Amino acid sequence: MSRKVTRREWSATLAGAASLAAQTPPAPPQTPEQLLEVARQQARRNADLLTKHKLPPSTEPAFLFKP
Amino acid sequence: MAQIPDDVFYATAGELSSKLKAKEFSALELTRAFCDRLEKLGPRYNALSLSLRETAIKKAKDVDDDMKRERFRGPLHGIPYAVKDLLSVAGNPTTWGAKPYAGQVFDSDATVISKLNRSGAILLGKLAMVELAGGGGYRYPAASLTGPGLNPWDRTRWSGGSSSGSGRAVAAGLVTFALGSETSGSILTPAAYCGVTGLRPTYGLVSRAGAMALSWTMDKIGPMCRSAEDCGLVLQTIAGKDAEDPASAGKSFYYAPQFARKFTDLRLGWAPADFQERPEAPLRAVFQQALDAVRGFGFKVTEVTLPDLPYGPVTGTVISAEGSAVFEDLIASGKVDELADARQIAGLKTGLEILAKDYLKAMRIRSQVQQAFRKIFTEVDVLITPGRITVASRVSEPLDAARGGAGPQATGKAAGLRDLIPAGNLAGLPALSLPCGFVEGLPLAISLVGRPFSENTLLAVGKQYQSVTGWHRKRPKV
Question: Known catalytic residue: B164?
């Protein structure tokens, strides 16, 4: 015999699931695509931090061309 | 035939040289005994990549012929050693620790191997390493063709990487010394975790011709030994100008700790946070004791902090951009997917997407890092810091799950010299790792860092430290 679930019961169930999800740490990336995305995010974070670091225009890169 | 006593496997190069000269055993007997041990115990720690027994035996016979004629080529004559498998040995596989290169063979020796060969040192084999020296960023200790690096002090612990086999082989008494390489931490970390003495030379002092490139502007080759003195003797042999390495500094090195400045004239830089806050609590007393011992040599002591620069992002960008360029063909061919570590694969692929402006920005900030060190080294001569602020992590754990100590970002505590490994590598500075004690039966180390080409100063301090402590003499039960 089926019982109709009220809106209040649905709401309580969903809130519980959301709270459980909040407590569970996100699963580490597994697929190659996920790992690639994580690596890209890391590279973007690095690039952002480099961009934020202000340099005098006269600062040359740390390599030297020797003819 | 002379029986080789167990102590011999843990003797320094200097001690072995004396025994060879005293004819306690022949070079052939010594070589056979070490080859047996390397082949028997090497696989126990996943340390061995390739045994070169046949050529080693031939070489040992030559050494014995020399010795019969009282011909001594130097302090490494007849001394057994092995190298990280990123150095080419003519006609033998050079795998770079990676499956896609398992069948790779070069037709000439790396410059450092030719130099050691001329000195009469005996190459016993090639040692395991993290695949491609970990350039793509790896997540697991098992990121290697030969499996995870098992620490001789506790096989459930990691040996550190990427010169992982070099650290393990020296610690377990499988060779008297080994060569490793460092781009950012790859000599210092396994030296610290395995309890051996490791020297990262100044960038350009040692030729990299015949070595796998990971980062043209950061790669260095250096010795991992039983003592600071052995590091000096090996560096003396492998350093020097080489037209085959465009980054060669054109300088040679002569090990002469007796001519180092008096310690009372030297200034030692340190940061309290490195010893009292950042390491996990049980480790602090060990590091403090090491610091006290070094301070006791009479240095003028000064507190130092690295300036706030984005060391991590700069190092990551430089290694990633250069490493991915080195391995562009591997990535394009799809063979990169044969690597053992999925994160490493993703890291290498992503490195090809780094923009020129970001790489150049990183290299410009690197100029500031160099400038910052020039300023620091007007105030001090030697920096001292814990090598790693944790003991070796468990081999079963991903490296990003390892205990990290009380990091300043987590605690709001002072950074001190926290970033000295990436910063020192960006600036091409020499560093010496010295075993300094144990926690949970696992080795700890302190690091000394100096201005470019100040290896003799670091080695003199290291030698003095090892004359008053016995940590470098401790042996694991193998």
Answer: no
